[in-house]
Amino acid sequence: MKITSPSLDSTLTVSVTILIHLRPFTPQKSPKITEILDQLTISPDSMIFLHNEFRNCNQTPFCKRARSRKPGACPLVAIDVSISNGDLVAKLIPKEKSEENTENGENPIKPLVLTISAYQDGIMRLKIDEDQNLSPRKKRFEVPDVIVPDFVNKKLWLQRLKEEENEEGIFSVVYLSDGYEGVIRRDPFEVFVRESGKNGKKVLSLNSNGLFDFEQLRDKKEENEEWEERFRSHTDTRPYGPQSISFDVSFYDADFVYGIPEHATSLALKPTRGPGVEDSEPYRLFNLDVFEYIHDSPFGLYGSIPFMVSHGKSKGSSGFFWLNAAEMQIDVMGPGWNNESVLMLPSDQKRVDTLWMSEAGVVDAFFFIGPGPKDVVRQYTSVTGKSALPQLFATAYHQCRWNYRDEEDVYNVDSKFDEHDIPYDVLWLDIEHTDGKKYFTWDRMLFPNPEEMQNKLAAKGRRMVTIVDPHIKRDESYYIHKEASEKGYYVKDATGKDFDGWCWPGSSSYLDMVNPEIRSWWAEKFSCKNYVGSTPSLYIWNDMNEPSVFNGPEKINFIRLLIMNLILIEILEVMLISARDLSVVTMPRDALHYGDVEHRELHNAYGYYFHMATADGLVKRGDGKDRPFVLSRAFFPGSQRYGAVWTGDNSAEWDHLRVSVPMILTLGLTGISFSGADVGGFFGNPDTELLVRWYQLGAYYPFFRAHAHHDTKRREPWLFGIDLVQERNTELMKEAIHVRYMLLPYFYTLFREANASGIPVARPLWMEFPADEKTFSNDEAFMVGNSLLVQGIFTQRAKHVSVYLPGEQPWYDMKTGTAYEGGATHKLTVLEDSIPAFQRAGTIIPRKDRFRRSSTQMENDPYTLVIALNSSMAAEGELYVDDGKSFEFQQGAFIHRRFTFSNGKLTSSKMGTATGGNNKFASECTVERIILLGLSPAPKNALVKPANQKVDVEWGPLLLRGGKGKSFLTIRKPNVRIADDWTIKLS
Ligand code: NOJ
């Protein structure tokens, strides 16, 4: 993860390097360009360039300043600590008023206002801002629309303050929850959560290392570099001067910290500072359209969630969330990072220190006490919201490519799936389906009858998705642009003009989605009437919403223009424009949004608002009766309420397959359950082995979609049938997709769990086995729910794989039914036909084993229950079913069953939920097979009650297709309905 420091290449050299790296390009390039490109080869330098393409901490003034601060540098002390309106309030002032404590000698540091609030479920909120009574230059930006209204109602009314004094100073203490207290130390100021009592152990703390700093907005008294910021040839004005905030946060009794997506890196975050870490960048949170990201790097990708979870063997988990949408950089300090420091921190508690730095905003931070990993996720999602429940179809397999060319291509792909007996649910259309990249339009030469096309697919129970990006082509004949510019709906540049940047359509402007009025206007565009050519079975893909601006300051995006297949003249023209624009730049940090908010203050939330508006549009289109499906590339805390996200433009490389696991697990930990990576890899051509392995792993991603760049070879699963060996690959991909369809009832039940509790579908092993240290840094295997463990195969021609199976109970191979001991590492032979997946003993997994064309056609199919017994011959599991599409489930229209097996009896009972299951949803579906793993001795028959019917217990296969010979005890056709209460007693 070492990032080499950049040399500032000249613009032209840089662009040529990109040209080299990105070869081959498009069919439409001019002969001249082809010639140039053909003479160039990929050089290692181009990779170095990719590292250097983005701004690093040293080139980012606030980050550089914060990183250079020494422990104990914070001069602030807390005064006037009291209780007011149910909160603890205090002022922060410099201890000694001196020349050092003024900025420029003329801008004295004014007192800051600190507020601590307590909320139910063990959540403490800390706010620090400038004092509004002292007339700051403007109100600093606080991100609206992220905290869910329910959370606000969970506020506890703090009554009293307890004062304590010891050799370390004076402390004010408030009640937080049973067993925990919130504490503020006066001098030096420090805020922490501890276990109750004077000597209670610390859980989480802020400013224990004295690195807190808060740059206040200032009046411009003189011209100097503080009022602007340069990156390469780009300059951003800073009309309020530097306004960054930074502080240290310590996680006690923690072995590792996790979270803060999005980075292509390990699940357990590696230290970025401290002994043995040379020259690493901090983890950057800055939503960026990163071209060809590298697989192990702290650079920020498309989305940002400033939420970190700690975990350790002795204490469990805690969490820290900073609601702030400006660029953030976060350092994870390795042990010994502050050996030189004179500060005394508790030495008997293991600790992970972190440094949080943000360019702007306020401190609005949440401390979550845990103590288990699931508690922390529950607490975090009680603030930012639970995952939306997707429609059933969206949890099935999606087929995407940039691009399916025309209607004929669509029909052909669709029918090939049927011909090869491969199920799929959704076919996607990328940007080329539009008329000149004007979203909500169709290229009518290629797609003359879009409604008919969607209806034909819908008749088979399939849906389509089209892409709608946030850049709006500045074309007077385009109705969206016309209306948006007339209404003044675009983001403005610093001079107040509509901001004009380059993206796929060329010159584009960007809707100011932070404004609720503009969001409602946008939402209306999705009605079938307004979106001409759309039907109710069409759903939406929001891409490029970081927002991506090709000629932006972060990188030399001529590359994008090349991808846009511009001819040489256009490229040269654009290069000239861009060369000029590099000094004026597009979507700069000083661009202006609704309410005079600078882009720098809300950058990371832009894509979130766009996603929100689009999802609202689909809800409105369906008159509140159809759950939306919107995939977004950019994300922010709360995005889970609006739809799915994917990990962007990965590459067809084994390392990218591997990193997809920690990336998806991290998203889940930070609230975004519905995520996936492009199966097959977006860039490049995977060989068939990699492609097969990707399907085998992707079948367990919460969001399962194959996607590819337009310059790659076609790779739909049936395209490998040139000979018998190759046909086998098609078979393997098909089998992988079948596994997903078979497990849809289990996945859907898990999506409902995420919707109700925030607990993600895909989970790190330590979420299920929090006391097992061997799981803490394992990010090659993961849990799907609490019952399935999946181990990826990430190397070519792998012969063996080591799989660690945690816990004391055995695990059953999903395919063969073979039992493996828990709490042990097993060296297994790698098979070509599947990746290792195991059912945990003590669980029951619901499946649907009949294979259809799409999930829609499986609606009335009967279920199979797979019961994996633990050493006490017991097991339990759940099944959640609803209509798969509407919001009726919120009114209780669902079936939610609990299955328990003990003493030789399987019982189906209603899950005790407060709101639901009150017979508003009916299903005639039955259970057709019950497979018992690990049962002895073998029973002969079973008695079904209340029907009082005897059924035989037979030996049967574990899987109807692709299983391995062995037989297992099976109750066939017990004919019980999943909606009913029943028991089946073995005898
Ligand atoms: C970038 C996205 O990440 C990719 O998935 C998409 O195919 C292209 N944009 C074109 O829309």
UniProtKB/TrEMBL annotation:
Localization (cell): Endoplasmic reticulum
Annotated pathway: Glycan metabolism; N-glycan metabolism
A Pfam family: Glyco_hydro_31_2nd
Domain Glycoside hydrolase family 31 N-terminal as annotated: residue spans: 114-331
Origin superkingdom: Eukaryota
Domain Glycosyl hydrolase family 31 C-terminal residue range list: 758-845
Gene3D superfamilies: Glycosidases, glycosyl hydrolase (family 31), Golgi alpha-mannosidase II
Ranges for domain Glycoside hydrolase family 31 TIM barrel: 388-750
Keywords: Endoplasmic reticulum, Glycoprotein, Glycosidase, Hydrolase, Signal
PANTHER family per UniProt: ALPHA-GLUCOSIDASE (PTHR22762), BCDNA.GH04962 (PTHR22762:SF54)
Family: Belongs to the glycosyl hydrolase 31 family.
UniProt protein name: Glucosidase II subunit alpha
Taxonomic lineage of the native organism: Eukaryota, Viridiplantae, Streptophyta, Embryophyta, Tracheophyta
